[in-house]
Design brief:
By secondary structure, the protein is mainly beta. Helix content is about 10%, strand content about 50%. The two termini are about 55 Å apart.
């Protein structure tokens, strides 16, 4: 009985202790660093619950838990810690710094490295920095945040961004293809690798990106060989972690507005300027511009009868919505982990009938069997992208050939210019162009530990892109009720396109890693194979029953129909390797090599080897440096040299290609084939050799960091069409001949407050200088494209690629006597005309007097980013800009009303007349463009500084989020492209846009409200 009583007493005591342990307990405490500094912003979560809090500025916290609970404590830069409450109501805790996190693991080609061990020039960007700016494409989000990376954001309609990325300048060109923006530079795009597989950046969801690394020097890019001349961008997507399932929602709603709205000269000033222009031209002034008519138009209230000359920017451009919703679910255990994400984005155009809808899904899964050396990962990504646009883009006619047209009458009909134009009518009646892109990417990867330190991995990936287009031009008739001018499109028509791509990649890697004593050795050997197949099909028919029937089979089945198509395939086979060696963590060496074979070349040119070497010295690890460590915490110098290639030559360039033709035998046409271009079986790679010298340093407990690089890279064997004897009877083939040099300096500085500060802040700045120069054309050239009225570009030895080319000017002629003593461009030159410089002093003005008048690619790019946090409030700012870059105006912007185009207000009362001889602009001269020939007068300094993004965010307190069953909640407002400092502001033009007539879909400003939720 006594034993039974004791047993029952024990049970009672145990139950009472258990009950006490389950009772809510108010816990107070403080968290400090290993050095004893209070830590604000540390997360404390009651394990297996939604209850939690965050430490205040003094590292203190209060929360409610039971005596048997366990607290999970996490903070950026510190090791995760679990603390059992054990009935305590007062906790004094210390967190240890996470050396791995502080050391930063950087993604490199086919692997990762510690940042401290890097001997290469790389820039790593966190996923959070990419998503901070709500944009429709990832390219835009990279502006200003990485030195050596130039992003040219030139607008683009919804779903078709015109942003391009250039890493350390422009390395190559194509003289066989050009436009009003110069010679073709499309072969300068960086290689983009996502989770080991080549992809296009535009297909990625920014919310799926964990990190992005830009490889810039030859030592880091040579592992990708023939595709790496223009730099490599490595993107790693987010993956699930073992533990509690997390659900994240990130969404925003934004309002888009055009960043530029050119302003027309006011009606009276314009009409009086036209009187001067007609008078100077010696032709009769039209009745519209008599004094009586001018007064009627100026004082009119009925703008249907007396329309303003040009209101298209006010009429066509509108505020348009853009929204994005992204949801992800991630979780699992030590065996299986998965992350599923979905996104929907809707972007309406700032011009009617432009739109884009995007929906996508990604599933990343990892499988690691218990007690197994195997690991398997599988990823699937699908995206559907649907875009609409007017079949007749309105932007050209907003500036050209659409004066005095009423945008739209109350009865729904449209006014017409003398030329029969109305951009609003073209937009609304001209038809619709529809494009749908189905994108699929999937890959599976397995790796196994064969021996200690030795691992083998294999990865197979497939990339499939199906693109379909329907470009329908509607038939319609419209008569202007004021002028009786009629515009008729008699036949409607449809062009339908199918463009399919399939690409398969197989990567195999063998890696070895071992440390012995002070020696660290890492080695990589790999084999990769890529197979790419493409097919293109197009069809055309016209005269459909009406504008609502848009099926290709319903058009006229007669001689007006046509179709075309092509197929292409290419492959790449590669062997590559890398060795990393470090002694005592301070002497670093890396050797890379890749042996690439491409089907684009033949014979002994098919394969080429691309090696690189790099070394680094961590001076701060030397004993003699110990006394400086409190000030200079880390100091490393590094250098690299290597070669990379560019295989972006036209397919089948080495074949004796035949072109369909016809011959006549006995008066009867017979189909046949003929060769038009001589084949070049010795065609080979473009090769870039690059030297890089760099320095990395850290100060003030590594809160101040500095990275600086100098580089020089020479690209040789650029394709040119060298002359061949005319007796050959064929066009010259491309040959490896040209050379281009890029050299420059990159500097990045970052400073952050102590992690223990109640007010935490960071500021970073980067600047890049790039000098580009053509060094060899094998005696050919110069290559010139463009015209006197549009930008003229040149590729010439000693000048940058796509240098602006034209006349120098020396003000305006003021007297007839001055004209008689100097050569002129045009006959009958008068005072007020432009004085073009006779550079070669031959007594005449012609193309031999043209010279370099500007550069089209910026020599300097820079960015400044700053952030500050106080409790739950966070402010982030990004400034970005460029310098030493020029913009050449053309078309209506330059013509100052001499043609039937838009006339900018900048010309108001600022053109030459006998009473205004010191005017900025020459005399107006109707239908005469002598004063707008391509010259330095039309070149504007395109340098700018722009507030790219500003974001104000608030993290809701945990006591509020818990009530909503949320782990965290963050709301924010932001604005992009908020203001710009530029000389192009007075022209109401975007300084990031390319030279020319400004007939592009404009870049937009975004005003955004967003929310981030986590369950």
């Amino acid at each position: 009985m006594k034993k039974l009583a004791l047993f029952m007493y024990g049970i009672a005591m145990l139950l009472s202790f258990t009950a006490l342990a389950q009772q809510p307990l108010k816990i107070t405490g403080q968290i400090k660093s290993g050095k004893g500094d209070p830590l604000p912003g540390i997360n404390i979560l009651v394990k297996h619950s939604r209850s939690g809090t965050v430490t205040d500025g003094q590292g203190r916290f209060v929360l409610t838990a039971t005596g048997s609970d366990t607290l999970l404590i996490t903070g950026i830069g510190f090791k995760k810690q679990e603390v059992a409450v054990n009935g305590r109501d007062l906790l004094q805790l210390r967190l240890q710094e996470d050396e791995t996190a502080l050391g930063e693991i950087v993604v490199v080609g086919y692997g990762t490295q510690k940042k401290s061990d890097l001997t290469n020039a790389v820039a790593q960007i966190k996923g959070a920095d990419i998503t901070r700016r709500p944009v429709s494409n990832i390219q835009q989000s990279l502006q200003g945040i990485a030195p050596g990376v130039t992003v040219l954001d030139r607008g683009g309609a919804p779903g078709t961004s015109a942003a391009t990325i250039r890493v350390r300048g422009i390395t190559t060109f194509n003289t066989n293809n050009s436009s009003t923006s110069g010679f073709d530079l499309n072969k300068n795009d960086a290689l983009v690798i996502v989770d080991g597989i080549e992809q296009q950046m535009s297909y990625l969801n920014p919310e799926d990106i964990a990190s992005l690394t830009v490889l810039k020097d030859a030592a880091s890019t040579a592992i990708y060989g023939s595709r790496a001349t223009n730099g490599v961008i490595l993107i790693t997507t987010k993956r699930a972690k073992a533990g509690k399932v997390t659900v994240n929602y990130n969404g925003y709603y934004a309002w888009q507005q055009s960043v530029n709205k050119p302003q027309m000269m006011d009606i009276e000033s314009y009409m009086r300027e036209q009187v001067v222009a007609y008078t100077n031209a010696g032709v009769a002034v039209p009745a519209r511009f008599t004094e009586a008519s001018i007064q009627q138009y100026v004082n009119a209230t009925d703008r249907y009868k007396y329309p303003l000359p040009n209101t298209w920017f006010q009429t066509m451009l509108k505020t348009a919505p853009q929204q994005s919703h992204a949801l992800s679910v991630a979780g699992g255990n030590d065996v299986v982990k998965s992350r599923l994400s979905i996104r929907y984005q809707d972007q309406q155009g700032i011009v009617e009938n432009y739109s884009n809808q995007l929906s996508e899904l990604r599933l990343n899964t990892d499988l690691t069997p218990v007690n197994s050396r195997f690991h398997v990962a599988g990823d699937i990504h699908y995206q559907n992208n649907a875009s609409n646009a007017p079949s007749v883009a309105p932007f050209n006619n907003m500036l050209h050939g659409s004066l005095w047209a009423v945008p739209k009458y109350p009865d729904g009909t449209y006014g017409l210019s003398t030329q029969g134009n109305n951009p609003l009518m073209f937009d609304e009646l001209g038809g619709l162009s529809k494009q749908k892109v189905d994108y699929f990417n999937g890959n599976i990867k397995g790796d196994v530990e064969l021996l200690r330190g030795l691992r083998f991995s294999t990865q197979f990936g497939a990339r499939v892109v199906y693109t379909s287009q329907k470009n329908f031009l509607s038939a319609y008739t419209n008569t202007d009720k004021n002028t009786n001018i009629t515009k008729t499109v008699t036949n409607n028509s449809l062009t339908e396109v199918r463009n399919n791509l399939k690409e398969y990649t197989w990567n195999n890697l063998l890696t070895y890693e071992r440390s012995f004593g002070k020696h660290d050795l890492r080695a990589l050997a790999g084999y990769s194979q890529i197979s790419n197949k493409q097919s293109f099909l197009s069809a055309y028919r016209e005269r459909f029953y009406n504008n609502d029937i848009t099926s290709i089979g319903q058009g006229a089945n007669d001689g007006t129909k046509s179709n075309g198509g092509s197929d292409a395939t290419w492959g790449l086979r590669s062997y590559f390797g890398r060795i990393n060696y470090a002694y005592a963590g301070k002497y670093l060496l890396e050797v890379n090599g890749r042996y690439d074979g491409s089907s684009r070349f033949a014979g002994n040119k098919r394969y080429s080897f691309f090696p690189s070497f790099s070394a680094g010295w961590r001076i701060s690890q030397e004993n003699f440096f110990a006394s400086l460590l409190p000030v200079v915490n880390d100091l490393k110098i590094r250098g690299s040299y290597g070669s990379t290639g560019n295989q972006s030559v036209d397919l089948y360039s080495y074949y004796d290609a035949l072109t369909a033709t016809s011959y006549t035998f006995n008066g009867v046409p017979v189909p046949g084939y003929r060769q038009t271009t001589l084949a070049n079986t010795d065609l080979g790679w473009e090769t870039t050799k690059q030297l890089d010298l760099g320095l990395d340093a850290a100060f003030l407990d590594k809160r101040l960091t500095l990275t600086a690089d100098y580089y020089r890279k020479l690209t040789s064997d650029i394709l040119l069409n060298l002359d061949i004897p005319a007796t050959v009877g064929l066009n010259a083939p491309p040959q490896n001949a040209g050379a281009v040099e890029n050299k420059g300096v990159e500097i990045a500085v970052n400073y952050s407050s102590k992690p223990t500060s109640e007010i935490r802040y960071n500021i970073g700045a980067n600047v890049s200088y790039n000098e580009n120069k053509v060094t060899d054309l094998k005696g050919t050239g110069p290559y010139i494209t463009g015209s006197d009225i549009d930008p003229r570009y040149i590729i010439k030895t000693g000048l940058p690629i796509n240098t602006l080319w034209g006349y120098q000017t020396d003000g305006l002629f003021q007297t007839q006597e001055e004209i008689s003593k100097y050569p002129t461009l045009a006959a009958n030159t008068k005072p007020g005309d432009v004085k073009y410089v006779d550079r070669n002093h031959d007594g005449k003005i012609d193309a031999n007097d043209m010279t370099n008048i500007g550069v089209s690619f910026p020599k300097y790019t820079f960015g400044i980013n700053a952030g500050i946090q106080y409790h739950g409030i966070e402010l982030n700012i990004l400034l970005q800009g460029a310098a030493k870059v020029d913009t050449r105006l053309s078309g209506a912007l330059a013509e100052m009303g001499n043609q039937e185009g838009f006339t900018h207000k900048i010309y108001t009362n600022n053109y030459w007349t006998p009473d205004n001889p010191n005017a900025r602009f020459p005399r107006p001269l109707k239908y005469d463009l002598r004063n707008v020939a391509t010259s330095d007068r039309l070149v504007i300094d395109g340098s700018y500084l722009r507030l790219k993004n500003i974001q104000l965010a608030y993290q809701l307190p945990s006591n509020i989020t818990r009530k909503a069953f949320l782990s965290s909640a963050r709301v924010y407002v932001s604005a992009t492209n908020l203001f710009t400092i530029s000389k192009l502001n007075e022209w109401n033009l975007d300084p990031e846009a390319e030279s020319g007539r400004a007939v592009y879909y404009p870049q937009t400003s975004l005003y955004t409200v967003g929310i981030n939720l986590q369950l």
